[in-house]
């Protein structure tokens, strides 16, 4: 089963396809369409100085017509509450079909991204201005969405790295050590694009909730800061750690 899972994920044409044991809890936000499968679902805890400050709840569904990645982010610090949600629709090729982001608290804001020929077109509004604005980015539909606060997007980017840079050896991905691969990304929340680089940093023993796990470590670097992240043997994102000290851990 493990060999089958790895082969499926490492296929660029079927990067979000899964089999039975990869399935997790059902997505309660929206009913699944016939023939769809849950590639991954669950929650991430976001920690600062050891204190949990936010939770992301996510789901990745894959079907014959493409994939849907949905996420809800909630943070409460004292009386300040932040709530955001996002939904990404991908074609079977993993090209972007659409992306929607909304903030309902503390302000009401929105942004959406759709491809248009050689452009990605972002439509947005913010709490201080009720007008709707458009901004064009000279980027292809293959560009990776890497939005703030939605850490499941980092898992999708990791899978793209595995598919493009790693080989399958004995049922597990074999990645070149410390060889960076660049990807073009768009951050709709910040309305900016940038290149990021990912490299494999080897196997690493990590303590999570008192248990020591041996995981695959990767480094993500960009002009906005660096992240280390760890995948388990099912190629699921387990932990992230920013150079600023923010830690994200799968529940």
């Amino acid at each position: 089963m493990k060999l089958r899972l790895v082969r499926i994920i490492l296929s660029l044409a079927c990067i979000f396809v899964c089999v039975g044991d990869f399935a997790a809890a059902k997505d309660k936000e929206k009913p699944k369409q016939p023939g769809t499968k849950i590639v991954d679902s669950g929650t991430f805890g976001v920690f600062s100085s050891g204190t949990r400050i936010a939770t992301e709840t996510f789901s990745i569904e894959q079907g014959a017509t493409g994939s849907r990645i949905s996420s809800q982010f909630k943070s409460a610090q004292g009386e300040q509450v932040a709530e955001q949600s996002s939904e990404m629709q991908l074609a079977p090729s993993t090209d972007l079909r659409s992306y929607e982001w909304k903030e309902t608290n503390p302000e009401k804001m929105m942004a959406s991204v759709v491809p248009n020929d050689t452009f990605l077109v972002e439509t947005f509004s913010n709490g201080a201005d009720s007008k709707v604005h458009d901004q064009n980015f000279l980027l292809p539909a293959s560009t990776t969405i890497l939005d703030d606060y939605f850490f499941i997007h980092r898992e999708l980017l990791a899978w793209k790295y595995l598919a493009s840079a790693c080989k399958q050896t004995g049922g597990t991905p074999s990645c070149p050590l410390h060889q960076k691969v660049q990807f073009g990304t768009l951050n709709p929340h910040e309305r900016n694009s940038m290149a990021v680089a990912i490299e494999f940093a080897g196997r690493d023993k990590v303590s999570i909730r008192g248990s020591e796990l041996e995981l695959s470590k990767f480094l993500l670097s960009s002009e906005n800061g660096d992240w280390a992240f760890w995948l388990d043997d099912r190629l699921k994102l387990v932990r992230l750690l920013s150079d600023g000290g923010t830690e994200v851990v799968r529940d």
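Confidence is low (pLDDT under 50) at residues 1-30. The first strand starts at residue 37 and ends at 48.
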